[in-house]
C-alpha cells in the first residue's frame, strides 16, 4: 500500500488538489447562493418554511441519482459535477442562514431601523454579522458533506480523488484495486480534516470578539 | 457609579433650563391595522413642548408605544400629520428622519458585535461626520452618561452591567445631537436601585441638554418623576389627560386617571417633592489620603459625628463615623459599596427608599456629575411628609 502511494504521489497530489479546488469553489458558490436565498426569504414565514422544506428534501436526494439526472442535459465532465456539488453545498448553509437570521433579536433590528439604518445596512451590518457563527457552522457541515459527494462526482468523470475510488471498485479483485480505493478514501478524509481546521480558524478570525463564545 | 468621571469645573445645575429641542405636533394621527375594526391609535392630536420631557403613560396595549413609534415612523401612520418644529415630516424619507431623532429602547438595544464606542458612533458616521469629530463626540457622550471613555470605549456590550448598557443606549441616542429623543420604556429591564440611579442621571442630562424627550412608561411614579408633562392614555391611545404631574395628581381628569394614579395619591405627592426642594445638611468632608486626626478635629468643631470621604475627583466614597476615622492615621480610600446615594433631582420617595434599603438614617446627595451636594437626613424627609399630608388634609 505504501509503495502504491509512493509510486503515484504525483498523481495523488494532483487529484487531491483538483478535489480541493472543486470543493472549495463549490462551497463558496453554494454559500453565496444560500445567503442570497436566505436573505430573500427569512422575513416571510411562508417562504422560510418553503426554503427549509427544499433544503430538507434536497438532502435526501441520493448524489448518484442527481448526477445521473444531470448527465442527460450536460453530458460527462466538469459541469454536472460542479452543479451537483454546489447544490449539496448550498443546502446546509441555507438552512443555517435562515435559522441564524431569524434568530437575531428583533429589538436589535428595531434599534438599527430606529437610528436610521436602511434595510440593507441593517441586514449587512447587524443581522448577518450576528448570524455569522450559525452560518459558518452551516458552511462547515456543508464542506464535510460535499467532500464525499465530490468523490462520487468522479462517476461523471469530474475531477478529484473519486477517480481512485471508482477505478479501485471497478477492478475489484485485480492488482492494486483495494489500494486504489483505500488511497482515494483516506485522501478524502485527510483533506476534509485539514479543510475543517482551516474553517475553524477562519471562524475565529471572522467572528467579532463581542459575540465569540 | 464608582467608575464615573467628573470633569473639572462641574457645577450644580442652574435652575434656568435651556431648550435645544424642537416641538413635536401630532395632528389627527391614526393607525389602523388590517383586520381590526378599532384603530390602535385613533386620531390623536397632541402638542409636545420643545426642550421638555413628556411622559406617555397608560395600560399595556393602549397604543402609547405605537404612537411613539409613529413619531419616527417605525410604524407608518394610516392618516394624520406629524410636525417637527414647523416641518411636516410625514412624507419624509424615514431613514433620513430617524437620523435626526434619537431612539432609546429597553435594555439599550446595543449591537453585541460592536464595541461601546462603535455603537455610539453609528449615527454620526451615517451622517458623514469626520473621523476625528466622531471620536471626540463618542468620548464626550460617554463622559456625559457617566462612563469613563478610556475604560469603556473599547469594551463590548456583554462586558457591561445592565445599567451601564442602558447608559450607552442613551449616549447612542444622543450621539448626533438630535433635537428629539424618543425613549421606549428605557428603564424597564433593570433592578429598582439601578433604575432610580438611571432616572436621576436622565434628569441631570436633560437639565444640561434640554432636548424634547418623549418617553413611554407604564410606571406612573416614573412618569411623575421624569416628566415635565404627562399624557395619560386609554385604549386606542385616547388622550385622557395632558398636564403637568402636579395637575394630574391633584386633579385627575376622569375616574380612569384617578384609578390609574392609585389609591395612595396623597403620599404620591411625595414623588413630586425633590431632594433639591428640601434643605440639605452640609457636612464635613475629608479627602482620601488626608490626615485623619485633622479631619476628626474639623468635624468635632462643626458638631458632626461623621465625615463624608471624597476621592481625588470629589466623588463620595464612604462616610465613616469619627470613631472609625479616629482609628486610622490617613483617610482610607475604601469604597463603601453600600453607601446610600441619591441625586439632587431624585424624589423624596427615592431618598426614603434608598435609606431603608441601606438601613441608614440619611443619604448622601450628589450634585452635578458626582460632586457632593450634602446629606439628606430621615428627619427632613419625615418633616416633608408631614407637611405634604397637612397640605392635602387642609
Summarize the structure.
The complex is a heterodimer of chains A (213) and B (394). Chain A is mainly alpha-helical and 213 residues long.
Could you walk me through the main structural features you see in this protein, from its secondary elements to its overall organization?
The complex is a heterodimer of chains A (213) and B (394). With 213 residues, chain A is mostly helical. Chain A is 82% helix and 0% strand. Chain A has helices at 2-7, 9-41, 45-60, 63-74, 78-102, 106-114, 119-152, 162-170, 177-206. In chain A, helix 2 runs antiparallel to helix 3, helix 5 packs across helix 7 and helix 6 crosses helix 7 (119-152). The longest helix of chain A has 34 residues, at 119-152. Chain B is an alpha/beta fold and 394 residues long. Chain B is globular. Chain A binds chain B through residues 107-108, 110-118, 126, 129-130, 208-211, and chain B through 72, 74, 94-99, 103, 105-107, 109-115, 122-123, 126, 156-158, 172-173, 182.
Amino acid at each position: 500500500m505504501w509503495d502504491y502511494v509512493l509510486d503515484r504521489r504525483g498523481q495523488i497530489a494532483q487529484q487531491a488538489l483538483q478535489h480541493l479546488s472543486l470543493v472549495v469553489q463549490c462551497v463558496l458558490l453554494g454559500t453565496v447562493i444560500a445567503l442570497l436565498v436566505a436573505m430573500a426569504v427569512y422575513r416571510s414565514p411562508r417562504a422560510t418554511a418553503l426554503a427549509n422544506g427544499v433544503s430538507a428534501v434536497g438532502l435526501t436526494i441520493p448524489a448518484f441519482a442527481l448526477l445521473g439526472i444531470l448527465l442527460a442535459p450536460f453530458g460527462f465532465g466538469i459541469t454536472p459535477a460542479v452543479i451537483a456539488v454546489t447544490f449539496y453545498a448550498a443546502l446546509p448553509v441555507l438552512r443555517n442562514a435562515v435559522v441564524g437570521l431569524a434568530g437575531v433579536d428583533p429589538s436589535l433590528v428595531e434599534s438599527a431601523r430606529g437610528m436610521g439604518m436602511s434595510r440593507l445596512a441593517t441586514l449587512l451590518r447587524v443581522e448577518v454579522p450576528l448570524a455569522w457563527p450559525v452560518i459558518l457552522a452551516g458552511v462547515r457541515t456543508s464542506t464535510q458533506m460535499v467532500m464525499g459527494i465530490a468523490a462520487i462526482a468522479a462517476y461523471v468523470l469530474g475531477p478529484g480523488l473519486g477517480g481512485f475510488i471508482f477505478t479501485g471498485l471497478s477492478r475489484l479483485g485485480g492488482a492494486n484495486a483495494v489500494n486504489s480505493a483505500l488511497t482515494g478514501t483516506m485522501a478524502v478524509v485527510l483533506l476534509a480534516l485539514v479543510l475543517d481546521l482551516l474553517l475553524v480558524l477562519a471562524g475565529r478570525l471572522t467572528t467579532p470578539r463581542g459575540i465569540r463564545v | 457609579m464608582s467608575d464615573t468621571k467628573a470633569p473639572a469645573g462641574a457645577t450644580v445645575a442652574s435652575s434656568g433650563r435651556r431648550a435645544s429641542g424642537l416641538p413635536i405636533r401630532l395632528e389627527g394621527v391614526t393607525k389602523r391595522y388590517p383586520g381590526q375594526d378599532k384603530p390602535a391609535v385613533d386620531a390623536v392630536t397632541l402638542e409636545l413642548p420643545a426642550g421638555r420631557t413628556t411622559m406617555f403613560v397608560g395600560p399595556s396595549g393602549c397604543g402609547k408605544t405605537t404612537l411613539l413609534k409613529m413619531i419616527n415612523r417605525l410604524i407608518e401612520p394610516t392618516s394624520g400629520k406629524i410636525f417637527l418644529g414647523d416641518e411636516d415630516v410625514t412624507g419624509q424619507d424615514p431613514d433620513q428622519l430617524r437620523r435626526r431623532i434619537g431612539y432609546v429602547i429597553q435594555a439599550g438595544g446595543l449591537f453585541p458585535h460592536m464595541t461601546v464606542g462603535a455603537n455610539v458612533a453609528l449615527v454620526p458616521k451615517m451622517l458623514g461626520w469626520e473621523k476625528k469629530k466622531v471620536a471626540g463626540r463618542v468620548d464626550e457622550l460617554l463622559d456625559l452618561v457617566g462612563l469613563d471613555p478610556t475604560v469603556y470605549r473599547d469594551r463590548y456590550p456583554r462586558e457591561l452591567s445592565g445599567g451601564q448598557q442602558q447608559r450607552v443606549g442613551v449616549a447612542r441616542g444622543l450621539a448626533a445631537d438630535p433635537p428629539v429623543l424618543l425613549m421606549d420604556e428605557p428603564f424597564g429591564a433593570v433592578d429598582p436601585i439601578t433604575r432610580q440611579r438611571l432616572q436621576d442621571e436622565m434628569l441631570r442630562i436633560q437639565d444640561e441638554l434640554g432636548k424634547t424627550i418623549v418617553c413611554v412608561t407604564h410606571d406612573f411614579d416614573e412618569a411623575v418623576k421624569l416628566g415635565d408633562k404627562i399624557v395619560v392614555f386609554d385604549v386606542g391611545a385616547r388622550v385622557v389627560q395632558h398636564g403637568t404631574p402636579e395637575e394630574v395628581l391633584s386633579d385627575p381628569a376622569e375616574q380612569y386617571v384617578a384609578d390609574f394614579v392609585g389609591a395612595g395619591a396623597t403620599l404620591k405627592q411625595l414623588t413630586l417633592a425633590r431632594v433639591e426642594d428640601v434643605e440639605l445638611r452640609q457636612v464635613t468632608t475629608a479627602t482620601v489620603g488626608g490626615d485623619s486626626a485633622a479631619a476628626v478635629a474639623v468635624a468635632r468643631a462643626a458638631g458632626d459625628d461623621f465625615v463624608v470621604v471624597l476621592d481625588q475627583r470629589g466623588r463620595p466614597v464612604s462616610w465613616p463615623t469619627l470613631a472609625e476615622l479616629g482609628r486610622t492615621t490617613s483617610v482610607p480610600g475604601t469604597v463603601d459599596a453600600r453607601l446610600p446615594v441619591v441625586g439632587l433631582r431624585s424624589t423624596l420617595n427615592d431618598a426614603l427608599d434608598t435609606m431603608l434599603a441601606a438601613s441608614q438614617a440619611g443619604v448622601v446627595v450628589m450634585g452635578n456629575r458626582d460632586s457632593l451636594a450634602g446629606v439628606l437626613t430621615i428627619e427632613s424627609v419625615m418633616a416633608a411628609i408631614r407637611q405634604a399630608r397637612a397640605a392635602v388634609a387642609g
